[in-house]
Amino acid sequence: MNDIRPKLHLVVIGNGMAGMRTVEELLKFDPEQYSITVFGAEPHGNYNRILLSPVLAGEKTIGDIMLNDRAWYTDRGIQLHAGDPVVKIDRLRRIVTSKKGVDVPYDRLLIATGSKPFVIPVPGHQLPGVVAFRDIHDVEAMLETSRTHRRAVVIGGGLLGLECANGLARNGMEVTVVHVMDSLMERQLDKPAAALLQAALEARGLKFLMQAGTTEILGKDRVTGIRFKDGREVETDLVVMAAGIRPNIDLARSCGLHCERAIVVDDTLQTLSDPRIYAVGECVEHRKAVYGLVAPLWEQARVCAAHLAGLGHKRYPGSTVSTKLKVTGIDLFSAGDFIGDAETEDLVLRDPRRGVYKRIVVKGNTIVGAVLYGDVKDGPWYLDLMKNAVDIAPMRPKLLFGQRYCEAAIAPLAA
Amino acid sequence: MADGNLSMPASTPIKTTCPYCGTGCGVEATPSGKLVRVAGDPQHPTNAGRLCVKGSALGDTVVPQGRLLHPQLRDKQSPGQPLQRLSWDAALDHAAGELRRIIDTHGPESVAWYVSGQLLTEDYYVANKLVKGFVGTANIDTNSRLCMSSAVAGHKRAFGEDIVPVAYEDLDRCDLVVLVGSNTAWCHPILFQRMLRAREARPQMKIVVLDPRKTASTEMADLHLGLRAGSDVRLFNGLLAHLHRLGLTDAAFVERSTLGLDETLAAADRDASLADIAADCGLEVEALERFYALFAATERVITCFSMGVNQSSAGTDKVNSIINCHLLTGRIGKPGAGPFSLTGQPNAMGGREVGGLANMLASHMDLEREEHRELVQRFWQSPAIASRTGLKAVDLFKAIESGEIKAVWIMATNPVVSLPDADQVRRALDQCELVIVSDVMAETDTTAYAHLLLPAQGWGEKDGTVTNSERCISRQRAFVPPLGEARPDWWMLSEVARRWGHAAQFPYRAVHEIFDEHARLSAFENEGARYFDIGGLAGLDAHAYDALAPLRWPVPRTAADARHLQAFADGRFYHADGLARFVPTPARAPANAVDADYPLVLNTGRVRDHWHTMTRTGLSATLSSHIPEPFVELNPADAEAAGIAHGSLARVSTRWGSLVGRAVVADEHARGSLFVPIHWNAQFASDARVGALVNPVVDPVSGEPEFKHTPAKVEAFVPAWHGFILSRKPLAIRHLAWWTRVTGASFTRYELAGDATSLPWPEFGRVLLGASADADWLEYIDGAGGLYRAAHVVDGRIEAVLFVAPRPDLPSRNWLASLFAAGQLDDEARIGLLAGEPLAAGPDEGATICSCFGVGQKRIVAAIESGQADSVVKLGELLKCGTNCGSCVPELKKILSKTQAGAKAASTAS
């Protein structure tokens, strides 16, 4: 087919998972509509960032987690500027400028700058041996340290911190996880599940310091230890900051896009300030929500791509998210409001000897949250029931026993 | 618990007699290690090798669980103290000494014996001899008072002697069997099977059942008259008048052999129309006419009657109203005809033969007749002889409560459960000066009140004879050594007699010596005056006695002719004048009528697979599976009025007491009535002793209580939660609003209900199941839904499960129960523990219908629905159900017709 339309120019800032998924979706809708230029801060093609943990743990290699190599961009006529982040957006002239001074005009701009690790600004945080856990570079730094040093402290007992700690331990390091709260993964797990998790990780040799606020990282040329509010000190050769992430919105802010916690977008992933500029991924705030997980990102990418393609038939209503911990041998699943309130009801199943704990939070007759530990195979099904607000009343007594039980129970009623 | 064991080298089967109902089936028992295999005795004339469910499961009951093994004494000065073990010598010294002291202080009427149709004839004989001849009181009564004393009284009034004139073989040659107040299918299964086989062989034979309830027996009947409770006499009076009007009077027989017809007809309201009678009996007039016509047209008719007749304030009149009809038509003393009392207990008849009731003497002789007293005293060479009728069961326990009787020896029976107004029995025993209980089991509702407990021998240990409903004497033989220090009842009694200085009159060293004395007494100066005569069996030595084959009495010393062996065949009866009596029986209503406060009639009775107070059948998982829980059966209309759903709990109350049972709401159950089984008691349920509800009203002649008619009300019992436990070990379940215990195969099941609304379940659950804090404990909690489930696992195997819910619709217990026999739980079964079902929905059998082969309702329904089975025979070929004892056949038939009707309705609708 001979397309006579003049090609529009799409510039994508951020060569990460959200931006590239949007491009992939867009190419599926219409491969010819745009000429595309991609800027990325990292000097690679696009890789699956959430699989960095298995890379750190030695279960996968960098090659395993590459999503789009350079050939992929070339084959599709996409101009890739890897290792050259955009430093300026001129919305009036519709031109972006990179760190290396490349100017590229755009008709549409997609911001997918993701997030950056939150580095606690304590004294010593810039010492050699203090790293974050965000990209391939961080992983390589940690792997290098593990070959030459013995002790590591991971600050942060959340998803990322625990995966990191597990990876370091798998590389032979003595790892202490420092967490400011009294239970691990408090954003995803209730206390019983967190206790099971902590016990399982302790059994693998991890040490935990709970309710420990870091006040200083010690060392002259390189990190040698870490000090806490209560005066305790722990010697270490490596400190990993895994205390959370912050949306990477400096660039967006600097060009005057409306930001709250992140770049504010509507249900089409368009920024509120500029209809030519879209944003997806961890750098956006949609209906007050900022996501740090992968599933919402896929959903956003599909909607955004449809709009960029001029189809306009999809809207993004927000995501119901679930969490899994990528530590081999530890199964946990968390979704929705797993804490509950006065109007919710809990269904709980415990089999401590087998390390199984399940809790479903029900409101009215729908699931609003779930925590599964030890046996997570029904997690996706609960998530579906939750997303679709399925009336679970008929299967409530069997809900916790899983999909196969419930479907066996419902079948005769239907017959 | 027991420390005894039952090891005895297995060898050839030992022939003995079943210890349950009055049918008296022969059993072959083969001890094998700690187990006992039982089978029907093919040579026994009663059953020719067949056994019912209970009989088939006898092996389950010859176990050490719960047995009383040693004499024990409770210190009366310190109530609440545990029983102390003591030697037999000390125990017998205590019994003899205390009884003697009380007799010496307050006279012979101050002591009493309450004995049982579970005793063997020889035990019974010695008890009666000791009490009536050597204590000199007739205060010895028996639980047969609750069972067939009305039949005894009716026989004596009509015949002059307690004679059952029908034999089982008559059932094979009659053309009509009328079952009155008898669920024969469940209570005398082998006899019922025999009737069915007879009907099959001769299709002209009919079976009519008169019963207010629809039962397994009515299912198989050609005609069922669901008469109003207590209207039997009206119905038989009407029949008498009807037969007379039709000219069916056997004038020659009546003239030659009877007295009293005119007065009897006059009392029978002879002019009442069939419509009036039908209305009074709550029947359709057509049904009544059909029955009367059938009875009138059939020469060979046997009227079998049982507890529905006997257990009534007009029980004796009911018996006589039946006998009157047979006398009028001369249908008595002939093959295939006569009135036939089906006795409840294995040795009710033996007890009657030795005079075990308070108003009898011995060998069918009368306490009131001086020549009989003189004869018996001379034969016994006893220092005394009771000269006035003793207290009958209900009055006896009233006299204990009033303090008139100060000591009681209870043998082989459980009056705290079985008597009417049973809480009165508790009160009586609670303040009685001396309560001696000899029993097989350590913990019963009655042993709880004992001061002195004496371990008796159980079935399989004891040795002697029993007599069944048709006067057939059979041997019960020992085939295992007695557990612990259990001794024969006759030995205990004789030892007390020896301590009182009567060693010469109680010289027995072995049981055959007692039988010999009993046989000699029956012939002593008899000369044909008493039909009961087994003089021909006197003089048997130990070997001959042991080899004694079943035989029907009379067995006179000189060979009797055939006419003599067919009772009354010669037209001779046993009043002094040799004539039978018509007894006028004006109809009267049950003693207590229903009213606005207690508008329903409470009826009581047996279930198929349990016996009496469950001391034995309660040990068997097989027998406990048919009907696991105490229940209240009622009509849907009555249930709805009370807000009771099928499967929920219901409280039944009368002016005497109340209980709680599982509601069985049944379309076929007559409106205005309730049925509650007699079996459950404090050992098996918190609140299910129906005896406590029964009005303590007795028949004025027989003294038999009115168990079948107590005004009652029913209401929903709504606890805060329902639950169940299955546990490998027995648990101490107390302080709950309601519970019942069911024996399972390698587990015990508890059904529970509680009234506490907010229990700390995870903690309370562990307490209930006896699990420690570090136990392998799985739990499921739906707090808002009121659900709690927990499983205790030990070494990878199920130890116990607990399920709690706000409503009674809990998961099926069957699959969970099956896990107790399985080994290590795999992960899926572990999850299933709390789901209460396997993931791959296995075959949930539903309620067990055929206990012999463990065939459940769902499997049966499936076989019918699939078209594989369209008859009971086909079901049997396919699933084996109903092919052993056959007692589930009525239920199979019912399921078959219901399922087929359902399928038909469905196909018509579609």
UniProtKB/TrEMBL annotation, chain A:
Domain of life according to the entry: Bacteria
Keyword DNA-binding on entry: no
UniProt cofactor(s): FAD
Cell inner membrane keyword on record: no
Gene Ontology terms for molecular function: oxidoreductase activity
Keyword entries, A-Z: FAD, Flavoprotein
SUPFAM superfamilies: FAD/NAD(P)-binding domain
Domain FAD/NAD(P)-binding positions: 9-288
Domain NADH-rubredoxin oxidoreductase C-terminal: 322-388
Entry-linked Pfam families: Pyr_redox_2, Rubredoxin_C
PANTHER family for the chain: NITRITE REDUCTASE [NAD(P)H], PYRIDINE NUCLEOTIDE-DISULFIDE OXIDOREDUCTASE DOMAIN-CONTAINING
Family: Belongs to the FAD-dependent oxidoreductase family.
Protein name: Nirb nh2 domain (NADH binding fad binding)
Species name: Hydrocarboniphaga effusa AP103
TrEMBL record, chain B:
Pfam name, any one: Molybdop_Fe4S4
GO biological process entries: cellular respiration; nitrate assimilation
Molecular function terms from GO: 4 iron, 4 sulfur cluster binding; metal ion binding; molybdopterin cofactor binding; oxidoreductase activity
InterPro entries according to UniProt: Asp_de-COase-like_dom_sf, BFD-like_2Fe2S-bd_dom, BFD-like_2Fe2S-bd_dom_sf, CT_Nitrate-R-NapA-like, MoPterin_dinucl-bd_dom, Mopterin_OxRdtase, Mopterin_OxRdtase_4Fe-4S_dom, MopterinOxRdtase_cofactor_BS
Highest rank taxon of the organism: Bacteria
Domain called 4Fe-4S Mo/W bis-MGD-type: residue spans: 11-66
Claim: 4Fe-4S is one of the keywords in the record: yes
Alphabetical list of PROSITE patterns matching this protein: 4FE4S_MOW_BIS_MGD (PS51669), MOLYBDOPTERIN_PROK_1 (PS00551)
Cofactor(s) this protein requires: Mo-bis(molybdopterin guanine dinucleotide); [4Fe-4S] cluster
Keyword Transmembrane: no
GO cellular component: membrane; oxidoreductase complex
Keyword list, A-Z: 4Fe-4S, Iron, Iron-sulfur, Metal-binding, Molybdenum, Nitrate assimilation, Oxidoreductase
Family the entry assigns: Belongs to the prokaryotic molybdopterin-containing oxidoreductase family. NasA/NapA/NarB subfamily.
Protein name, UniProt field: Nitrate reductase
